[in-house]
Amino acid sequence: MSPKPKAVDAESILDAAAILIETRGVEAFSMRALAERIGVAATSIYWHVGGRDALFDSLVDRLLAEMDGLPVHGAGAAERIAALARNQRSLLIRRQHLLAIAHERDRTPTLFLPVQQRLAAELAALGITGTQAALVLRAIQVHVISSAVMQFSAVRGPQHQEEDPTLWTADWPDQELVAALQSPTDYDAVFEYGLESLLASLHELEEQVRAAPSSSA
């Protein structure tokens, strides 16, 4: 008696495809490799999710839903902005290959829109709107995205020293700095330092808003 065909559905196929892409990269992905991983015929995959393009579109749709549903917590706007930035960076690092697919399919602006709109709403709560809000929003997004790119580039790239010792002379006045620069970069710490620096003025503004007398007083 022949074995019963393995039951699959669209979600399980997309789950397997995401894992395959994240572990092997987009270039190594194929519908045949996906079928082998799941243990079904390729025709079953086409039946549930369509071809490669349709499958990639569905993966980007799921990534967009994740971006739209990022958890945000904090007592004030500045804390919520910080939480949103941290959670977005974490998601980008985890879904780096899916991000590349979204970019190739010209869906990056749509992908980042939910986060940008939530940032704009939090900035508006602090009275920051218009061109100033656009500048702050972009500064936060550039910091988040560039940090994520540097993080997964360092992880997947070849091992190397962060600094070439020969570029620093032995009589440099701050040898503790030289030694520190030659150690591996703590990208999480660098991100947190930059984020706190970016949000320092927002924390101050929030304190001013809280301390201001109520108009109804």
UniProtKB/TrEMBL annotation:
DNA-binding region: 30-49
Pfam name, any one: TetR_C_1
The UniProt record lists the keyword Manganese: no
Keyword annotations of the record: DNA-binding, Transcription, Transcription regulation
Domain HTH tetR-type: 7-67
InterPro entries in UniProt: HTH-type_TetR-like_transc_reg, HTH_TetR, Repressor_TetR_C
The protein's name in its UniProt record: TetR family transcriptional regulator
Organism: [Mycobacterium] fortunisiensis
